[in-house]
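Q: Can I see a sequence and its folded structure?
A: Here is a first one.
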Amino acid sequence: MIVIQSPRLQLSQFQMMDAQEVFGCITPAIARFMPWEPPSWSEYVARCEKRAQAPEPNKFSFVIRRLDNRECLGMASFEDAESVSPEIGLWLKESAHRQGFGREVVAALVEWGHATLGKRSFIYPVAIQNIASRRIAENLHGQIIGNRTNPKYDSVVYRIPFCESPYSLLIITGTMGAGKTAVLGEASDILSRRQVVHAAIDLDAFGLAHLPSSARSDGVMYDNLRSIFRNYAALGVQRFLVARAIEDGAQLRLCRNIIPAPDTVVCRLTASMEAMKRRVQTRDSGVSQLEYVARVAKLNVILDGARLEDFAVTNENRSLTDVALEMLVKAKWISN
C-alpha cells in the first residue's frame, strides 16, 4: 500500500475499511465543485467495491488523514500515472477548509509523483468559481493550459511543475561555549529586521529531560524537531536555523531527513579553548559545572574529527552582530 506523508497529513491508498469515514465527510457543499452528486450509502459502497474488484493500474485514490489524530479529512486522486503529466484532484470536508490542507495535499502528490515516477509536471483541473482551489495551483507555480466543461460547471486546467524542496537549513555547530545559542538568537534578530521569514531552533532544548531508562533523549529530541518542523512548514516557513553540536554524519543526515532541505549549510563557531571554558564556567554555575567545562575540549576533538562544517566563523573578540552577519553572508542567506 502506498503511503505519503507531508508535514501534517498522511495520504494512504483507499481501502474498503475507510469507506464509512470517507462517506461521512461527503456533503452537498463538498459536491458543489465536483463532477458528481453526493451518493447514498449503498451507491457509495457499490462504487467502492467495483473499483476494488477491478483496480485501474494507473489510477490511485488516497484517503487524507491528519497525522496527529488520524482524523479523516477527504480524498485525493492521482490519475493517468503513465502519462507525461498525471492528473491530481482532491476534496476536503467542510471543517478542513481554510487551513492550508489542500495545498499540502497537492504539494505532497507532486513530490511523490516526481520521486516515484520521475514526473516533472502535473495536471490540476479546477472549477472556474472555486477560487480557493485555484489559489492552490497558483501558489505552486501552476499555469493555465486549457479549459474543460461538464454539466455542472466550467473548469480551467492548470499545469503544476515539480520544484525542488523549498526549504533551506543552516546548522550552527560548535563545542560547548562556542556561542551557538547566542549567535542563533542574533541571527534571528537580523533576519527578522530584514523581514526574512524563518524559524530559529535551539535543538538541545528539545532533549532537556530525564527519561525512563528505555527511552533515549536524543530520539525524543529529534522527534520533537520533526513536530516543530511540521508546525512551522504548515505556516509557510521555509528557512530554518538550527543550533546543535553535530558530532557525526549520522546526526547530520537525520537533521536533513527531518528538514528536507537541498540547500543545507553547516557553520562551525570557533574560539580559543580558554575563552570557551570561561564562558561555560560563567554560564553553568550549578552541580554539573565541572562536567560541562571538561566537555568543552572533548567535544571540540570530536568536531575536529568529524569535519562536517562547510565553513567556520570565529566568535571571539568581536561583536555578536558581526559574527552572526558573517555567518549569514557566508551561508548566502543575506547579501551583506
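Q: Show me another, different protein.
A: A second, unrelated one:
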Amino acid sequence: MTIAFGEAPFGLRDVQVKAIGGSFVALNAAQVLSFVPIVTAERLRGGDKLVAIASIIEGVEWELSEGGVPFDVIDILIGGTLSSSGSTPNEVDTFTIDGAETNPWFIVEGRAISEDATSDMHVTLWKCKVESISWRMEQGAFVITECSGAGIDDDTNGVLTMEQYETATAIS
C-alpha cells in the first residue's frame, strides 16, 4: 500500500509567525509546534443510559519552542520594545518587556515534510495569543524560548487549517 502525498509528515521543517496584517518571520531553530483543539463537551444521561452528547471545538491550545532568543519573533508573540545602539563590533540590541501590556494577536504556521521530502503538510493557527512564555539559561545548554497559548476562530479561516501539498511548498 502506497502512502498518499501529505499523509506521513515528518519532523518540523519550518515555523513562522506574523502579526495580524504583518509579514511572516521565520523561527531559525524551531523545535516543537504542538496543537490540540479546545473541546467543550457535555453528556446527557437519563433512564440509566447516555441519551445525547454535545461536542464543540471552540479554539486551539498550542505550544512552541525555539532554540535561542529571537527578539523579532518575541516582539510578534508578546509585544515589547526593540532597540539597537552602537555600531559593529559594539552594537547592542535591547528588548524591553513592559508591565501591563496586552499581548498581541498573531498567526503561526508550521510545516513538516514528507518522508521523501517531495510533499509536505502545513498547519496554520489563525488567531493566537501567548498565555505563557519562558527562557532558561543553564550550564552546557543553549537558551530555549518556550511559549504556549490559545487560538480562536478568526471569522474567516476558522480556528486552524491543515493542508497537504503534493509538491513541497514554502510558507508564504
